[in-house]
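Re: the request from the purification team.
They wanted to know what the chain is likely to look like in 3D before they choose a buffer screen. I agreed to run a prediction and write the result into the notebook, where they can find it.
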Amino acid sequence: MVAVFSAPFTPADAVLPALRERGYAVLSPDGVSTLCDQPLAALDALTPSWNDLVPDNYLRDGGNYRRRRHSCFVVDAAAVERVPHRAHWQSQEYNALHGGMHRWFEPISGAVVAHPAWTHLLRALGEKFSTMRDVPRWYVEAHQFRIDTSDGIGRPTPEGAHRDGVDFVAVFLIGRHGIKGGETRVFEAAGPNGQRFTLTEPWSLLLLDDARVIHESTPIQPLQGEGHRDTLVLTYRAGAFQGED
């Protein structure tokens, strides 16, 4: 039997000190609600859209376990603006498995993007990150993921422990259904220390200073029949989207 370590939740008012001190912070669902000034019921209204994701046809390990949608935004204090649909691109320095190619995914639905909770969420995180760094405008990529066990095993991070090549990363757990595994691991990028835990509560959140830490999630396996794990990943980058500078 594999031990499951509880998530080390940080109070909402201590998020910035935690990010400054150790490069990451973990928020409970209530903490996320406080952070974005939205009730959990409003965030839950976004959840059904994870049932409408489409297969990721770019997996180089030959798997069929990932479904996703992807859209890009420019976020500042005044507005959250969706930009024309564009490919997701990372260098091989940050993604040895899938880096160096333009990956075109289906966009996030208009209903999700138009929901007030979506706008509040993206803007609230941008405001927090601008407090950390004097950046007035963020280039944000949003990824809806579903990792399933249709192959017998599903890999949330097939590229392994990695950085994303951005400034900050937000990983929300949306739900876990009929699975074991999916443990989150965060390591110092330039040191020996790390922590492992499992996000289990919908809308719990891992925030990462991408320059300071490396992260991964372990594979998932079904408990009985087929299961899946849903996440929302938001990356915030100063200056430009990856591949534009």
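For the purification team: The helical segments are 15-22, 29-36, 40-44, 110-114, 116-132.
Please add any questions underneath this entry.
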